[in-house]
Design goal:
Order of helices and strands: HHHHHHHHHHHHHHHHHHHHHHHEEHH
Strand content: under 5%
Pfam families: DctM
Shape: globular
Number of domains: 2
InterPro entries: DctM, TRAP_DctM
Membrane topology: Multi-pass membrane protein
Number of strands: 2
Protein name: Candidate large permease component
Structural class: mainly alpha
Function: Part of the tripartite ATP-independent periplasmic (TRAP) transport system.
Strand order of the largest sheet: 1-2
Oligomer: single chain
């Protein structure tokens, strides 16, 4: 029995961790306790040396020195300040009025605002709670299906986990040993594609089931021009002009970048083009709106001006954070610090910054940061013991021998992550499972940045899984549990049940699975820089034809003929004399 345990310590240790978690102990303490327990068992069985735990203080100290993890409190603080500054309310109110007149318009507004909040906050809780408090009552008031309304809000909130600056991408970059900036660049386009898939689902509902996503009634459209018109034509013209500028800049981006930098640039990353061209288009819209307002030109409608001024702050913050990272001006940690400062400035400009707000934001940021660090310490203790019993080799043999090569490995890993996400959140998956999978993926020749983005999309489903999805819990905390009287219409509104929230999440979980399949089928969706690997077998070493101080004429042994332009040496004595002269000249 003892011999069996000694020979199979790695799988027994992994099963032991699952047992610890099933007992309901906190993940951080379960990881640490499991690692220490099996370390003691290994000492007794002679499988592990007692000096193994001497490396533990150095590893924990290394966690404290990890500058990559410093970005987590910065982005968390930025998101919490923005969530309390009223930016989400203004966005949802304005964009809801913009899209409201069409069927499914409120749902499209929630998706659009969810993507904007994801690109500025990076925190799921802030996005889901904000949109649940603001949008859900409006959607229920005007007849939206409860499952559709709750599913759209929960799914849009989880976009904060894939659209940079995402916290899960920071953790994955740390665990995979890759740059956070590369992870952000790789996840940018997949995040936009996933947002588009959500919007396509809502559009299909508006076509085939219009009763589930009705348009706003005429009396609910509060943004009207003095003459009663909607004011949309001028907004459409301004949008068209700005879009044309962005497209033109995208087509001539390398020429513009070469002119700006003063050196020739032949290629540019897709994410860099999107951010810079969008920033230029937004700047043009802002300048036109400001000039029109100050000079009272009357070129723009009230709707066009309001949409422009409401969208500028979050888009400016996106460029301040992501633009500086993608352009190489700032590191992700520095970008997070600038984002936190920008969020405080926006809250101050809105006159929402107070000591109470700052205290709440700092308190929550400290709790989340401590939560991450404690899980990482527990995972380090578990990982040290697991490596000591050759656990990574066991996992490598288990996964690398799967049929199908890379594709078989990716399918099995994604099914595993999907199932584990029913019970574990993304932090726990990142610290427990990813360190075991990364070496195998690297050995199979899989790009780890691409692999990290793929796992991030899959882990996003952990927020949407019934019954343990955190986004569903956040929405449940703000959704009405009892029948209530609507303040605007005066009608009685039925509550939103937990099962309606669960069923509403199912279509969006399927969309996320479709996104995983798209990334595997079309790897180019993830934009990444391919590393140039040097093949050592093809390296050639070339020596210069002429050495300093030596005559270019080659020395030709007697009897073999002379090289062109060289006098042959007739005897060994003359040859030795020539060599001595050459060396004496070099010494001088």
């Amino acid at each position: 029995m003892l011999q069996f345990i000694a020979q199979n310590m790695a799988p027994i240790m992994f099963v032991g961790l699952i047992v610890f978690l099933l007992f309901g102990f906190p993940v951080a303490f379960s990881l640490g306790a499991c690692g220490l327990f099996f370390a003691l068992v290994g000492f007794e069985l002679g499988v592990l040396p007692e000096s193994l735990l001497q490396a533990m203080p150095l590893r924990i100290f290394g966690i404290m020195q990890n500058e990559t993890l410093l970005a987590i409190p910065f982005f968390t603080l930025m998101g919490l300040v923005l969530e309390r500054s009223g930016m989400a309310e203004d966005l949802l109110d304005t964009v809801g009025q913009l899209f409201g007149p069409v069927r499914g318009g409120l749902a499209l507004a929630v998706i659009f605002v969810g993507a904007l909040l994801a690109a500025t906050t990076g925190v799921v809780a802030a996005s889901v709670i904000s949109m649940g408090l603001i949008s859900l009552p409006i959607m229920l008031r005007y007849g939206y299906d409860r499952r559709v309304a709750s599913g759209v809000i929960a799914a849009s909130g989880t976009l904060a986990q894939i659209i940079p600056p995402s916290l899960v991408l920071i953790v994955l970059a740390d665990q995979l040993g890759r740059s956070v900036g590369d992870m952000y660049k790789g996840a940018f386009v997949p995040g936009l594609v996933l947002t588009a898939l959500y919007a396509v689902y809502v559009i299909l509902l508006a076509i085939f089931r219009p009763h589930q996503v009705p348009a706003l009634p005429l009396e609910a459209r509060t943004f009207r021009e003095p003459n009663g018109s909607s004011g949309l034509p001028s907004l459409l013209v301004l949008t068209s002009v700005c879009t044309a500028l962005a497209i033109y800049m995208g087509m001539r981006y390398t020429d513009l970048a070469s002119w700006w930098s003063g050196r020739e640039i032949t290629t540019a990353a897709t994410d860099e083009k999107i951010v810079v061209c969008t920033a230029a288009a937004v700047l043009l819209a802002f300048v036109v709106a400001v000039v029109n307002k100050l000079a009272r030109l009357g070129l723009l409608s009230c709707m066009a001006e309001r949409v422009t001024f409401v969208l500028i702050p979050p888009l400016f913050l996106i460029f301040l954070v992501l633009g500086t990272i993608f352009l190489g001006i700032a590191t992700p940690t520095e970008g997070g610090a600038m984002g936190a400062l920008g969020a405080l400035g926006m809250a101050l400009a809105r006159r929402r910054l107070s000591f109470s707000l700052l205290k709440q934001a700092l308190n929550t940021t400290t709790k989340l940061s401590c939560f991450v660090v404690f899980i990482l310490i527990g995972a380090t203790i578990f990982g040290l013991t697991f490596q000591g019993v050759d656990g990574p080799r066991w996992v490598e043999h288990l996964l690398s021998s799967l049929p199908g090569g890379q594709l078989g490995f990716l399918i099995v890993v994604n099914i595993l992550i999907f199932l584990l996400a029913f019970f574990l959140d993304f932090f726990e998956l990142s610290f427990i499972v990813v360190p075991l999978l990364a070496p195998v993926a690297d050995k199979l020749g899989i790009d780890l940045v691409w692999f990290g983005v793929l796992l991030a999309v899959n882990m996003q489903t952990s927020f949407m899984h019934p019954p343990f999805g955190f986004a569903l819990f956040y929405l449940r905390s703000v959704a009405p549990e009892k029948e209530y009287t609507d303040k605007v219409t005066g009608r009685r509104v039925a509550p939103v049940t937990t099962m309606q929230i669960y069923w509403g999440a199912v279509p969006f979980v399927l969309i996320q699975i479709l996104m995983v399949a798209l990334i595997i089928g079309f790897p180019g969706i993830v934009s990444r820089e391919v590393e140039q690997k040097v093949d050592l077998d093809k390296v050639q070493i070339e020596m210069p034809a002429e050495l300093p101080g030596f005559d270019a004429a080659p020395l030709t042994p007697p009897g073999t003929g002379a090289a062109p332009g060289a006098e042959p040496l007739s005897s060994p004595d003359e040859e030795q004399k020539r060599i001595d002269e050459l060396f004496n000249n070099n010494k001088k």
